[in-house]
Design brief:
- The radius of gyration is 21 Å and the shape is globular.
- Strands 1-2-3-4-5-6-7-8 form an eight-stranded antiparallel beta barrel.
- It is of the alpha+beta class and 124 residues long.
- The termini are far apart.
């Protein structure tokens, strides 16, 4: 009887812990985003696609595509980097910003200074 009671409690505990893990909210960065970068040559629209494993890709008509690296979200602080080919010049862009209710915004830190950017979730 005691053996069966202990086993029953153990099974119940495993089920409860499994339910808690399954109901953990997903990372709010996961998904498709439309980002506007305010570059020195004008505004540029780019798409960000962020996967569940916090890998992703940045694509635009102007820059082509580039993988996102080192993507993190700590509290509301967002950071990632990417390396792009800007008309033959290879640039590493490091983004640091903050996630809010309607998206995230911050700056790309470059060799040429900070470039403001703002992202909103894509709805299409």
């Amino acid at each position: 009887m005691k053996k069966m009671t202990f086993s029953s409690l153990l099974v119940a505990l495993v089920l409860v812990l499994g339910a808690c893990a399954a109901s953990a909210p997903p990372n709010p960065l996961i998904g498709a985003w439309l980002m506007t970068i305010s570059s020195p040559v004008g505004e540029m629209a780019v798409n960000l696609n962020i996967n569940e494993d916090l890998t992703g890709e940045m694509t635009s008509d102007d820059l082509g595509s580039a993988p996102l690296a080192n993507l993190t979200l700590v509290d509301n602080a967002v950071s990632f980097d990417t390396t792009i080919d800007a008309q033959g010049q290879i640039l590493t862009l490091v983004f640091n910003g903050f996630l809010g209710e309607d998206g995230f915004n911050g700056n790309f830190d470059t060799d040429f200074g900070a470039i403001p950017a703002r992202a909103v979730r894509r709805t299409e």
